[in-house]
Amino acid sequence: MSAVIAVRDLAVERSDRAVLAGVGLTLAAGERLLVDGASGAGKSTLLHALLGFVPCRSGRIELLGRVCVAEADFAAARGPVGLLFQDPDDQLLGPTVFEDVEFGPLNLGLEAAAAHARAHELLHRLGLEALAGRPVHELSGGEKRLVALAGVLALRPAVLLLDEPTAGLDEAAAQRVLQALAATALPMIIASHDPLCRQRLATRVLALRDGRLGAALAG
Prior knowledge:
- It is a single chain.
- Helix 3 packs across helix 4, helix 3 packs parallel to helix 5 and helix 5 packs parallel to helix 6.
- The strands form two sheets. Strands 6-7-8-3-9-10 form a six-stranded mixed beta sheet, with helices on both faces.
- It has seven helices and ten strands.
- By secondary structure, the protein is α/β, with parallel strands linked by helices.
- The chain has a single domain, classed as P-loop containing nucleotide triphosphate hydrolases (Rossmann fold, 3-Layer(aba) Sandwich).
- Helix content is 32%, strand content 28%.
């Protein structure tokens, strides 16, 4: 089975420190790869590097069958490869929940009626209809995370990158987010050290230590 994401010898440096030092990974269709690691290990850097948001010193990145080198390559992959940021406030753009979810489809050039229909579909699927008219700044942390996820899914991605999707959430809110993610059936890379993510989502687990990916510790 061909990989939806393939990475080889990826190296990223910040302030003359190697954050990623020759990372390699593949993600197959239907697979949910959890990347474990301590805070500061480089998990967020890895996800952001995959979409060209972080400059790489070396390495090869292939997304959905296309080798990405230039900014135009990465720009074309953003959307088909959906990234859920660790902090939803970095991702929420619309003044209300409904406007935020339909922003991406409108930005892709969908007609207003089609964008409205897609936003309604996502809000219904994630159980967020009651929040449609709510200003995003009034939402709880769990609600913001779900709305941000709805915005990502509204772009109809083929694969997801999830940066600490349950960080800062109580267990009830975390379970809602994980239930929504499990229901997508999309391949995904999950950067998290939350045991709930491992239990509910992961089909495979790797650990990021000393800038490299390797076998995860048991537990």
